[in-house]
């Protein structure tokens, strides 16, 4: 199988590249970066590609069996440029899937986010829950989902949308843009500051999923999809773990004591916050289709702390 990963030099895409390559797949990545900017990939494995409305994409998806579309502007970049968020996260994806259909790509996996549901992640969130978040990042993802669901239902191409919870874990390189993600950020703070500052509401809860388990889930999906009739087009993708930011910080502090020999302090901001309704991220559907992977938080945090110690 030949796999193309867009956003392949990003946090998730780069991890998936090495994961599937190790399994023996023929894997290419499409990236806006030049080869000279990347020191962890062979030149013939990366396609320089500016994902914009004026670029033809026929060549990069010729003879591809599966597209994993992980390219996109992140939450912060969308906030800074909402118009570009719609152009890149939505319109470019539509161009990409239309070309995938024309080139007879067999499967198209779109990595979305559970932030499409609402800005205040609380309560029970199921695949059929309303998507009401008005942030430009969430809106661009939601628009894309709706368009893809229509295409999938019309059987123009086989495809799946994965609404990812909060991803964390050791990146391929320290230079990859992933240190704004809260668990990664907390671990980096432990090394640099010997403390963890929680800048937002420390009561808010997040479902968490490691990069390693995300890759295993996607591989399970690839292997099962063609063997099951009426395979769902949309999945909540998360884990068995949902914690408040404060609980995660406390766990990291305890692991630091064991791994690094010191206990970083936890600094809460001065704002008064009320406890929120608990977050229940419903992953029953992915469990029913045997995509679920048990999350080992301690192992992943230990690896992150040691990685941060080495590079920061």
Can you offer a commentary on this structure?
This protein is of the alpha/beta class and 312 residues long. The chain has helices spanning 11-22, 75-80, 82-102, 136-153, 182-193, 211-225, 245-259, 284-288, 297-311, and strands at residues 2-6, 26-31, 46-48, 66-69, 107-113, 123-125, 158-164, 166-168, 195-198, 205-210, 234-237, 242-244, 265-268, 279-281. The chain has two domains: 2-167 and 208-237, NAD(P)-binding Rossmann-like Domain (Rossmann fold, 3-Layer(aba) Sandwich), CATH 3.40.50; 171-207 and 240-277 and 296-311, UDP-galactose 4-epimerase, domain 1, CATH 3.90.25.10. Helix 1 (11-22) packs across helix 6 (211-225), helix 5 (182-193) packs across helix 7 and helix 5 packs across helix 9. The protein is 38% helix and 20% strand. A seven-stranded parallel sheet has the order 3-2-1-4-5-7-11, sandwiched between helices. A three-stranded mixed sheet has the order 8-10-12. The radius of gyration is 19 Å and the shape is globular. Strand 1, helix 1 and strand 2 (26-31) form a beta-alpha-beta unit.
